[in-house]
Design brief:
This protein is an alpha/beta fold. The protein is built from 8 helices and 8 strands. It has an 8-stranded parallel β-sheet, sandwiched between helices. It starts with a strand and ends in a 16-residue tail after the last helix.
């Protein structure tokens, strides 16, 4: 495992033209009460494998987080998964791991960061520097998943990145959130064009396709963000 220093800049650095597609998945550390949520995590991993997509995620070994990481590693190998986890949460994960070690051969490469902000910055940076089709997908989850999802949606609106943000709506899990977006538009708090910053997908193939075909909104803020 590597120790990652805080990421100060989110803007992309020059890279080669053969950049891999990188998708960051936000999801719960719990399995949920319906087996459909775990099945959705596995299906997303299978689609990633079929399209040679690299996963970056929050580094958990339990629930949906562990399911998608284990499945993709079993299909594409450890190099296909990059987990980013704060040191404080690592100790929790180690309590559930054999010999208190999170095996790279099971969960992929792991980077340890000092706090939650550094975790989110590093995951976003990898997506921003990824190739075509890179972006963010939210599977089902709790407070943390929703907070991560809304932050990258806000960064899109502010022009910090232009990557797609998809909600994988399993069994109507995100119906309430999507209804809230429509309400916010009708009440004048979200510009109509920005309603499409969050894109719904009903299956794994659609989630990846939505990222590949994503187009940024013309209603986004036209702001200049420097690396300083």
């Amino acid at each position: 495992m590597a120790i990652q220093k805080p990421i100060e800049a989110l803007l992309p650095t020059p890279l080669s033209t053969s950049r891999p597609t990188v998708i960051c998945v936000f999801c719960g550390a719990s399995p949920g009460t319906s087996p459909t949520h775990l099945a959705a995590a596995r299906s997303l991993a299978h689609v990633f494998h079929a399209h040679s997509i690299t996963l970056v995620y929050g580094g958990g070994t339990q629930g949906l987080m562990g399911e998608i990481a284990r499945t993709l590693v079993s299909l594409s190998g450890p190099a296909s998964v990059h987990g980013v986890i704060p040191e404080a949460l690592l100790s929790v994960e180690q309590q559930n791991a054999p010999n208190r070690q999170i095996a790279e051969g099971t969960y992929g490469r792991m980077t340890i960061v000092k706090d939650m902000h550094s975790r989110k910055n590093l995951m976003a940076k990898e997506v921003i520097e990824g190739g075509p089709g890179s972006g963010f997908v939210a599977l089902s989850g709790g407070y943390g998943t929703l907070e991560e999802l809304m932050e990258v949606a806000t960064w899109n609106q502010l022009g910090i990145h232009g990557k797609g943000v998809v909600v994988f709506n399993v069994e109507g899990y995100y119906d309430g959130l999507l209804a809230w977006v429509r309400t916010a538009v009708s009440k004048g708090f979200i510009a109509p064009g920005n309603a499409g910053i969050l894109v719904e997908a009903l299956d794994a193939e659609e989630a990846v396709r939505q990222l590949r075909e994503y187009r940024v909104s013309e209603d986004r803020f036209q702001l200049e963000w420097s690396q300083n």
